[in-house]
Amino acid sequence: MADLSLCQSCDQLVRMPRHVEGFLTKCPRCKSTLPHSEHTGLAAPIALSLAGIMLLVPANTLPIMTLGMLGQSNSNTMINGAQQLYVGGYWWMAFLVFACSVVVPAAVLILRFFICIGLAKNLPHQMVAPLLKAYEHLTHWAMLDVYMLGILVAFVKMVSMGDLVVGLGLYSFVALMLVFAWSSAQFNVKALWYELHNVEP
């Protein structure tokens, strides 16, 4: 007995054998690998996505670090950093920082949430499939770990220049990065495609 599954790469219907351990099914049209496993549940991805969405505001609007030097202090947030790059004439770098550290992570978390809600509510695949496709295109542009590394490098360089105080924004950003990574680990895209195409429209 077999199930029909839709290849997420080319939309070809493929007959999937059931319970075949260690066997990979290939799409006959585009040769993409189709998953056999089911996801382990939607509760964890939904909860983690919501937690990440809630952390987005403090992580991007609260001060990351405050540098005090010669009686003056200067605080910066993630959004502030992109704004200063734009004012300095580095508009392309400002766009990349703002997109990859603010817009894309927010979009990825929101997509994860609505994809899981769509599957939990057994919505037709025509409604959820575009969200999954958009998610797969966007997820490679979310670079929170890269910006965390940049923050650590900046901290090491600035710590000897004056009084450096770590702000709540940095703690929120670290929490966001950890929740984002945990959410990614719980969000099995291939298994969700498999589940999606076995939902009756």
What this model shows, in words?
The chain is of the alpha+beta class. The protein has one domain (41-187). It has seven helices and seven strands; from the N terminus they run E-E-E-E-H-E-E-H-H-H-H-E-H-H. It has helices spanning 43-61, 78-87, 91-120, 125-138, 144-158, 168-186, 189-196; strands at 2-6, 13-17, 25-26, 33-34, 65-69, 72-76, 163-166. The strands form three sheets. It has a three-stranded antiparallel sheet with strand order 6-5-7. Strands 1-2 form a two-stranded antiparallel sheet. A two-stranded antiparallel ribbon has the order 3-4. A hairpin with a 6-residue loop joins strand 1 (2-6) and strand 2. Helix 1 packs antiparallel against helix 3 (91-120). The radius of gyration is 21 Å and the shape is elongated. The mean pLDDT is 76.
Name its key features.
alpha+beta, two-stranded antiparallel ribbon, 7 helices, 14% strand
In short:
By secondary structure, the chain is an alpha+beta fold. It is built from seven helices and seven strands, in the order E-E-E-E-H-E-E-H-H-H-H-E-H-H.
Rg: 21 Å
Strand content: 5-15%
What's the number of domains? 1
Can you tell me the overall shape? elongated
Distance between the termini: 21 Å
Spans with pLDDT under 50 lasting ≥5 residues?
Answer: none
